[in-house]
Amino acid sequence: MLTVAISPDALAELIEQVATSVAAKLLADCHGLGFANLGQPVLHERLALSPDEAAAAISISPRLLFDLTKSGQIRATKCGSRVIYARSELLRFLEAAGQQLGGNC
Question: What's the pTM value of the predicted model, to 2 decimals?
Fold first, then answer.
């Protein structure tokens, strides 16, 4: 066990630095999750996702998403050179998969 002596003022400064760093990280995470400002949610969600985002959203690999798209089980939309997946299509697929398995997804 390592013991370090630190003055109360130095400890207070260290705690403030850590708290500031953690607050900045939380704010960045919240922004990435659709919050423009901490505590103020954005009133809309993106309606379409990239292939990587879509795969992550339904907890599958991008390769499996590609295979499911190729087989017609999940529909994708070509938008210029990009392929996008509608949130509603991902939900439809999950509901259909849940019904086939006799449960709810």
Answer: 0.54
The verdict on residue 3 lying in a domain is no
User: Rounded CA gap, 21 and 29, in Å?
Assistant: 12
Instruction: Give residue 55's identity as a one-letter amino acid code.
Output: A
How many structural domains comprise the chain? 2
Interatomic CA distance for residues 58 and 103, integer angstroms: 16
The pLDDT of residue 27 is: 65
Mean pLDDT within 74-102: 89
Shared domain check, 66 and 33: no
What CATH number did the domain enclosing 70 receive? Answer: 1.10.1660
Q: Which residues contact 75 (CB under 8 A, 6 or more apart)?
A: 69, 86, 89
Candidates 56, 2, 11, 10; CA nearest to 33 is: 56
Please state, as a whole number, how many other Cβ atoms lie within 10 Å of the Cβ of residue 90. Answer: 19
